[in-house]
Amino acid sequence: MDWARLFSFSVSPAEIVVRGTVIYWFIFLLFRFLLRRDIGAIAVADILLLVLIADAASNGMSGGYDSITDGCILVATIAGWNYVLDWMSFHFPTVRRWVQPPPQVLVRDGKMQRKAMRRELITMDELKSKLREQGIENLDEIKIAHLEEDGEISVLRRDNQESRQSPAAAGGKTIA
Q1: Residue 142 belongs to what domain range?
Q2: Among 23, 27, 60, 108, which residue carries the largest CB count within 10 Å?
Q3: What pTM does this model have?
Q4: Which helix (H) or strand (E) holds 16?
Q5: Span 18-35, pLDDT tens digits
Q6: How far apart are CA 62 and CA 71, in angstroms?
């Protein structure tokens, strides 16, 4: 076994850092601006997409490296950018707004916001399912419901008196 070859550089460390940086930012921008949030789940298609992107990006990042040291530098570059982005998002609200998609209002005052649902590719059935999981039977129980950055739906209910009314008594729309 050639130990020197395993731990020596086969590609310039600067080239590895530049390749890793470019691919990291390309994939980040692709996910941030072109791909949509799924409501609270990772689907099989999402996993397949991640695997395919990783495979496609590996050649562009590696540039044909052969040594363990080259691989370690590449992994450190990718992890470093991830840490820097998290750190900057935590410390700078402007960066956070750019990095994280803003919450989208899906229901306001008991009415579905169909334009936002279309933009996020959320069907009425998906929304109703997520609301039922939170114990909401009637859209009139909802003051506001947001699709959060992580794909979960957060709901603020109206005051307790209103939300205790039955759908028939309230004249509301039952989620079924």
Answers
A1: 104-170
A2: 23
A3: 0.58
A4: helix 13-29
A5: 988 888 888 888 777 766
A6: 8
Please state, in angstroms and as integers, the Cα–Cα distance from residue 73 to each residue in 30, 40, 105, 122, 141, following that order. Answer: 23, 34, 42, 40, 53
Question: Which residues, 6+ apart, have CB-to-CB distance to 174 below 8 Å?
Answer: 137, 138, 167
Regarding beta strands 142-147 and 153-157, do their DSSP bridges make them parallel or antiparallel, or are they unpaired?
antiparallel
Last residue of a domain, one of 99, 126, 158: 99
Does 176 fall in a domain? no
Tens of pLDDT, residues 134-146: 899 899 999 999 9
Query: 60 is written with which tokens?
Result: 């562009």
pLDDT tens sequence across 108-158:
999 999 999 999 889 999 999 999 998 998 999 999 999 988 788 999 998
Question: Which one-letter amino acid corresponds to residue 36?
Answer: R
